[in-house]
Amino acid sequence: QVQLVESGGGLVQPGGSLRLSCAASGSIFSINAMGWYRQAPGKQRELVAAITSGGSTNYADSVKGRFTISRDNAKNTVYLQMNSLKPEDTAVYYCNFKQWGPFREFWGQGTQVTVSS
Known about the structure:
The chain has strands spanning 2-7, 10-12, 18-26, 32-39, 46-52, 57-59, 67-72, 77-82, 91-99, 104-107, 111-115.
């Protein structure tokens, strides 16, 4: 099992910034990927950004140039720096962890991000 502990959500004004963190612990294999998904009310959960253990990244088009994903492999922690936040970024953000050999996937409990004036 892998446990994920998220932190960093909250209320921010449009144009503001937030930083999310997610720390993984447990039975972690070396080949893995960590990422963030979000789900707004009435919408499907969508990928925001992901990063592999090798450092390759992937972003949703809607956040490119505004959000930056990074990770500290020594701490098994992934970060999402969110700048220039917009009201449409409002959602519950979920940390996601995937690993291979065999494939397993885990989710965090979610953290609310609200962008509003």
